[in-house]
């Protein structure tokens, strides 16, 4: 079992967000709701639909011989589209302040990928969007866990063996409980426990 800190004490901090309460949560008719949305809000809800279908949040876990635990973690966000729909990726890039890059998918150049790996951008721009516009998503739990991981990073937990273990544990709970991961969670548990024992 991974030794880990309680992730709940890093609850979402209150910070100014561009995604304010432009739209009431009170139920209204479809016609009235559409009329009450600004064109900017309509575009954001449309983008949420694109993300639901072709977007992904993930936490890469990569081995590296020079880092203390022998591995490091990197959160990311991406959207894929056929190259003929590049405009959708450009719209997403504009929404997130021009951050990230658009590039051909390795092995399939007919598909483009829009990707963001900058933690400050993920924390201050992408995650607030996900919290507001993806709350009805079928993957809402994954987006919530992704937010928890970003908050653990903000708290500096990735700098300690126990904190890094907590991040890995939450990451393995995402995306069908890590079924596509090549390494079982227990391998990181062993490495983290050894590093904790060696920590002065």
What is the structure about, briefly put?
The protein is 48% helix and 18% strand. The protein has helices at residues 30-36, 39-54, 86-95, 119-133, 140-154, 161-178, 185-198, and strands at 55-63, 71-82, 101-105, 108-116.
Protein model, in words:
The protein contains 7 helices and 4 strands; from the N terminus they run ααββαββαααα. With 200 residues, the chain is an alpha+beta fold. It has one domain (36-198): Homing endonucleases (Endonuclease I-creI), CATH 3.10.28. β1 and β2 (71-82) form a beta hairpin. Mean pLDDT is 81; it is low at 1-15 and 195-200.
Enumerate the strands of the largest sheet in spatial order, edge to edge or round the barrel: 1-2-4-3
Q: Any idea of the CATH class?
A: Alpha Beta
Main sheet specs = 4 strands, antiparallel
Task: Using the alpha-carbon principal axes, give the shape.
Answer: globular
Identify low-pLDDT runs: 1-15, 195-200
Strand composition percent: 15-25%
Q: What is the first-to-last residue Cα distance?
A: 22 Å
The share of residues in helices is 40-55%
Number of contiguous helices: 7
> Could you say what the CATH topology is called?
Endonuclease I-creI
Q: How many domains in all?
A: 1
Order of helices and strands: HHEEHEEHHHH
Mean pLDDT: 81
The CATH homologous superfamily is called: Homing endonucleases
CA radius of gyration is 19 Å
Q: How many extended strands?
A: 4
Structural class based on helices, strands and sheet pairing: alpha+beta
User: Judging by the overall fold, what is the CATH architecture?
Assistant: Roll
């Amino acid at each position: 079992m991974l030794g880990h800190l309680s992730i709940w004490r890093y609850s979402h901090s209150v910070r100014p967000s561009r995604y304010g309460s432009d739209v009431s949560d009170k139920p209204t008719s479809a016609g009235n709701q559409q009329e009450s949305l600004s064109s900017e809000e309509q575009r954001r809800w449309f983008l949420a639909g694109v993300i639901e279908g072709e977007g992904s949040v993930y936490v890469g876990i990569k081995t590296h011989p020079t880092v203390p635990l022998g591995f490091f973690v990197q959160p990311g966000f991406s959207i894929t589209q056929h190259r003929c729909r590049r405009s959708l990726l450009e719209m997403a890039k504009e929404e997130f302040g021009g951050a990230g890059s658009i590039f051909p998918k390795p092995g399939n150049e007919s598909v483009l990928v829009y990707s963001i790996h900058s933690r400050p951008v993920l924390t201050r721009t992408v995650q607030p969007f996900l919290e507001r516009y993806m709350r009805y998503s079928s993957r809402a739990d994954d987006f919530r866990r992704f937010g928890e991981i970003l908050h653990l990073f903000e708290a500096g937990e990735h700098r300690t063996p126990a904190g890094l273990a907590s991040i890995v544990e939450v990451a393995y709970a995402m995306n069908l409980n890590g079924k596509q991961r090549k390494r079982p969670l227990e391998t990181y548990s062993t490495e983290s426990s050894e590093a904790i024992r060696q920590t002065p």
